[in-house]
Write a sequence for this structure.
């Protein structure tokens, strides 16, 4: 899904293509400006956007093998939230549609965390069982 597809998906919920595009642009603008300024943007249940400073380091040119100095830089980082991870791991738990349905289906933060932790434990057990087989 690209930005145009996202606008199309939100068009029916927001009430028009222009309103959907403006809403997406506004959200992206706020996130980009806050992260660029060194802040964090945390959206409960979705994730956190933040700025990470990478130190200067020495790399290698893969073609020549020559050492190359790589300057320090700042990059954006996204860490998905517990509910987002749970929905990706268990798509069948996704609510039908709409923000009110999502909140009702997700339950309290403690319930979401508990379900996510149970899913993580189950996945680890499956991986461990697969290695021992």
């Amino acid at each position: 899904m690209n930005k145009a597809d996202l606008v199309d998906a939100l068009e029916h919920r927001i009430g028009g293509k222009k309103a959907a595009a403006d809403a997406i642009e506004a959200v992206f603008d706020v996130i980009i400006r806050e992260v660029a300024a060194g802040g964090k943007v945390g959206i409960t249940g979705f994730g956190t956007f933040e700025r990470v400073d990478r130190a200067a380091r020495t790399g290698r040119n893969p073609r020549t093998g020559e050492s190359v100095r790589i300057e320090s830089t700042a990059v954006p980082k996204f860490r998905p939230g517990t509910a987002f991870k749970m929905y990706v791991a268990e798509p069948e738990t996704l609510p039908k549609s709409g923000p009110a349905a999502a909140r009702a289906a997700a339950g309290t933060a403690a319930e979401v965390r508990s379900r996510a932790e149970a899913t993580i434990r189950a996945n680890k057990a499956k991986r461990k069982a697969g290695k021992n087989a």
User: Anything to note?
Assistant: The beta strands are 41-43, 47-54, 57-60, 67-70, 73-80. The chain has a mean pLDDT of 87.
